[in-house]
Each structure stands twice: as structure tokens, then as C-alpha cells.
Structures
1.
Amino acid sequence: MIRRNLPAAIVLTISAALTLTACGGGDDSKDSDEIVGADKQSPAAGSSPSPSKESGSQNLPDFKLPKDIKVEIEPVETGNELKDQILREQAESLMARQRILVDRDVNSGYLNRYYEGEARDFYITLIKKAKAEGMTITGTYRYYDRKITQNTKDRAVVTYCEDQTKAYSKDVKTGKAQKTEPSPEDFTLNTAVLTKTPNSTWVVQSLTGKTPAQECQ
């Protein structure tokens, strides 16, 4: 996974204090924090990309990620219309964070669509750092065991596991991945707080992460 001494902009998970969480094993090339965003084709706030089957069996929008980046999100259906919408759009936010790190654009439509408040501010800081250090992401990002632990009609808390054993930071100029050996720090238990917008879409307001997470291994 991507480590703290790497551009904090690689695979990142916001901690309660909005600081990076060290991740990965082996060397210093990964960072447990991660982001994703959009590019020139990024959607306007309140809208979503066209549907595709980019993430396994879950029908998510097509975020047009580079071929060297794979995102695996375990699909979840509760049978409850509201909860299913929350989980679907939370999954989309995970795809979006990958795009944000690839594009490294603080004006990303994906960033504006899926993140607000502390989460958005934190990602903007990480995007700037990644761009300044000439780093991006590569590899496989896996998300699973997604659950809604609390929810009302306009607020929800979603917990989920993240596996970055095959996720790495990459030098933009050389295209070389900075690989590390798998370690317990590649596993993070995340908690996302989402709120409903006036457009009836859901956005991530804040994120906290626990690494290493034994319950995710």
C-alpha cells in the first residue's frame, strides 16, 4: 500500500484528525491514505458518470481509470431502497477517489460531486502534495465488508474494510511503481459519514481510518 513518507496522495484514508495513516509493509513506497477524483470529463456536482460494470458485479458508473489501476468493491444489497442508494453512492465515492489521485486536479468534478466539508478539504491538500511530488497510484484497491451502522433520512455512517496489499504509488515521470511487501498495515477499517444533498445525492463529509485493522484481515 502507500506509505506516509510517500506523497500523502496515494491511496489515502482520512483519520479523525485528518492526518495520514501509515500503510504498507516492506519499504517506504506506500501510504495508507487514499483519494480519488476526476479529470476534464468530470461530472458536475449532483450528477453521476454513465453506468458501467467497472467494479465486479456492482453496476457502478464508468470512471475510466487507467488499465494499471483496478478497483474491487464488494457489492451489497439490503433490500431497503434508501440504504441501497447510500451504499451504491458510497461505492461510487471509492471509485472517484482513485480518479482524483490519477488526475490530481483540485477542481475535479468528481471531487465536488462525492466529497464535501473536511473530506473535500483534506483531499485537496493531498492532491496538491501528490502533484508537487510527481506521484500517482497504481495497482489493485479492494473494498469489502461494507455496512451501514447508522442512518437517518439525510445522514449515514458506513464502515468498510480496505486492502492495499497490491496497491502502490507510482512516479509520474518514470512510470515506475514503488512496490512494497504485504503487511498488516495494508489493511484499514474505515468509517465514512455521508450526508444527503438538496439534489437527493449522497456525499462523504468525513472519513476516519484504523490501521492495521485485524478485523479486515
2.
Amino acid sequence: MSKEKIKELKKKIEALIIAIPRELEAYEFYLDLSERSDDAASKEMFIFLAKQELMHRDHLEKILNELQNKLEEELEKK
């Protein structure tokens, strides 16, 4: 793998490292809104959105692990 591809992998990894905690922040934000909501429809919507953020986080963590493994493999080849 070229140095450019390794550099690109590192940039993607850095972006995911930034994005993953933001998904958790969004989860907490929606969960807080659900707890503050007075009506059932709003509460249900915010809980749904909170769950979506956890799913996003899980998906991003999976991608991060795959990219980290790929980067490690490539660096070992050098």
C-alpha cells in the first residue's frame, strides 16, 4: 500500500475517533429531551432518535475497528 493510502486510512480513522463520541452526545441529548417531554408522541420520537444514535455509534465503531486492522496489516508489511 502506498504512503498516500496509509495517510488516507489514518485520516478516516481520525474522523471516526471524533465522530463516535458525538454520536454518544447526540444520544444523551435526545434521551434528555425524551425525559423532559410531556406528551407521549414527543417522548417516543426522542427515544427513537436516541436509539438511532446508538446504532450509528455501533456502526462507526465497527468501521473504525476494520480500518484500524487494515492499517495495522499494511504497516506490518513495510
